[in-house]
Write a structure and sequence with these properties.
- With 216 residues, the chain is of the alpha+beta class.
- It folds into 2 domains: 3-65, no CATH class; 69-204, no CATH class.
- Helices cover 45% and strands 23% of the residues.
- It has 6 helices and 7 strands; from the N terminus they run αααααββαβββββ.
- Strands 1, 2, 3, 4, 5, 6 and 7 form a 7-stranded antiparallel sheet that branches.
- A hairpin with a 7-residue loop joins strand 3 (147-158) and strand 4 (166-175).
- Residues 2-26, 47-51 and 58-62 have low confidence and may be disordered.
């Protein structure tokens, strides 16, 4: 018997002894390695590491997420660019007609503002009916990635603590970055029947576009 054959058998015997009486096939070796990997990944140390990483990511998100005030300051220019034309339109309509139907507007990345009006087929349409149509139009406009913010304006009635109701212009703005703000400008008539507009009131508001986030 040759030396090479003897060495080959000795090598096989050592392999059989090491494996407990069986020679591992490549498939079996792969399965054993996978089982060891799973045991290591499920060890308390690895589980703690994964939990720690998850907690770190959550903490990072909380720390880096801007507050409402910070977001408001950052988006002030966009809010002004969108709300100013709507207030101008609303006040002109009130002075000339005494009221107006809801109107929408959209602000694009170039700073352009597009007004959106709606007309109902119903002769007896109310402001609520028109507002629904305006909101539908804004939802469609927001599918354009160049639109960064949308808004609506309405002629409503408001009341403060201990005060009677009075008419007001309402402008509701929703920015793509998640900020929702509602502005109110109270109105009243002077002794000569003309309209006067008071100081603006700002409140946190809900979103308008369902696909956009909101901090409200």
């Amino acid at each position: 018997m040759g030396e090479a054959s003897t060495r080959q058998r000795l090598g096989q015997n050592r392999q059989i002894a090491a494996s407990g009486g069986h020679v591992d096939s490549p498939r079996r070796s792969s399965a054993v390695q996978e089982a060891k990997r799973k045991r290591r990944s499920n060890s308390p140390h690895c589980i703690r590491s994964r939990l720690s990483l998850s907690a770190t990511r959550t903490l990072f998100n909380l720390v880096t997420m801007p507050t409402r005030d910070e977001l408001y300051d950052a988006l002030q220019a966009d809010l002004d660019s969108l709300s100013a034309p709507l207030f101008g339109f609303a006040e002109q309509q009130v002075r000339e007609r005494g009221a107006f139907y809801p109107v929408g507007a959209a602000l694009d990345t170039d700073g352009g503002v597009r007004l959106l009006t709606a007309v109902s087929e119903r002769e007896s349409a109310t402001s609520v009916d028109i507002l629904e149509l305006v909101l539908e139009g804004l939802q469609h406009a927001a599918t354009d990635d160049s639109i960064v913010a949308v808004a609506t304006t309405e002629w409503i009635r408001i009341s403060g603590a201990g005060q009677s109701e009075q008419p007001a212009v309402k402008v509701h703005v929703h920015h793509r970055r998640g900020l929702g703000v509602t502005f109110y400008v109270p109105a009243s008539k002077d002794l000569f029947g003309g309209w006067r507009f008071g100081d603006m009131i700002a409140r946190a508001g809900p979103g308008i576009i369902g696909a956009w986030p909101t901090t409200a």
